[in-house]
């Protein structure tokens, strides 16, 4: 793999990786170091890797690096075993939530424009049904029905995606 192809494949994920590392480590310096370590490991193994989902692979790698940092902190701060388990569970949960949100955003982008608009207005911008109806020109009943059907569709698509990834496909 050339340096140019490496840059094109991995560097677009830098901001997301930094944001995740910062949330996990709560330190700008350690988050920067974790992302740097991630890219260094990827570069050193660039010719050995066969990655299907670059983003997911990078997220997992930076999460593991952050876990290592947290483990080192534990040793230096003498955290109890129970606290360490809680930290690891919280880290894993945070990574799962982040990854699930990325997947949900991709699914939303696949929806027809009107459904995308309604989902974003309701669940991202937190508009009321009346505000959505006023902005879109739809009736409140139509907004409710469309949102309900769209949420059901998104749940089904997300479950299929989750089952697909869980089964290793």
Give a written overview of the molecule.
The protein has 169 residues and is mainly α. It has eight helices and no strands. Helix 4 (54-77) packs antiparallel against helix 5 and helix 6 (113-124) crosses helix 8. It is globular, with a radius of gyration of 20 Å.
Average pLDDT number:
86
How many structural domains? Answer: 2
- How many beta strands in the DSSP annotation? 0
Low-confidence stretches: none
Helix content: over 70%
Q: What letter string, H or E per element, gives the SSE order?
A: HHHHHHHH
How does the major sheet shape up?
A: none
Provide the structure class.
mainly alpha
CATH topology of the largest domain: Rna Polymerase Sigma Factor, Chain: A
Strand content: under 5%
- How many angstroms does the end-to-end distance come to? 25 Å
Radius of gyration of CA atoms, rounded to a whole number? 20 Å
CATH architecture tag of the largest domain: Orthogonal Bundle
Number of helices: 8
The CATH C-level name of the largest domain is Mainly Alpha
Shape: globular
Brief summary of the model shown:
The chain is mostly helical. The protein has helices at residues 3-10, 14-25, 28-44, 54-77, 81-109, 113-124, 129-136, 140-166.
Tags for this model:
169 residues; mainly alpha; Rna Polymerase Sigma Factor, Chain: A; Arc Repressor Mutant, subunit A; 2 domains
Write the layout of secondary structure elements.
Elements: H1 3-10, H2 14-25, H3 28-44, H4 54-77, H5 81-109, H6 113-124, H7 129-136, H8 140-166
Helix pairs in contact: 2-3, 2-4, 3-4, 4-5, 6-8, 7-8
């Amino acid at each position: 793999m050339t340096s140019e192809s490496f840059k094109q494949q991995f560097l677009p994920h830098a901001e997301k990786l930094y944001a995740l590392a910062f949330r996990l480590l709560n330190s700008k310096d350690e988050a920067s170091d974790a992302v740097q370590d991630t890219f260094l490991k990827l570069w050193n193994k660039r010719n050995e890797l066969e990655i299907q989902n670059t983003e997911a692979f990078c997220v997992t790698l930076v999460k593991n690096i952050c876990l290592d940092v947290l483990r080192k902190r534990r040793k230096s701060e003498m955290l109890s075993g129970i606290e360490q388990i809680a930290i690891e569970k919280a880290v894993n949960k945070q990574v799962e939530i982040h990854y699930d949100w990325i997947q949900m955003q991709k699914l939303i982008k696949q929806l027809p424009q009107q459904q995308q608009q309604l989902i974003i207005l309701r669940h991202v911008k937190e508009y009321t049904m009346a505000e959505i109806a006023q902005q879109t020109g739809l009736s409140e009943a139509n907004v409710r029905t469309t949102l309900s059907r769209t949420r059901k569709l998104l749940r089904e698509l997300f479950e299929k995606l989750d089952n697909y990834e869980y089964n290793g496909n």
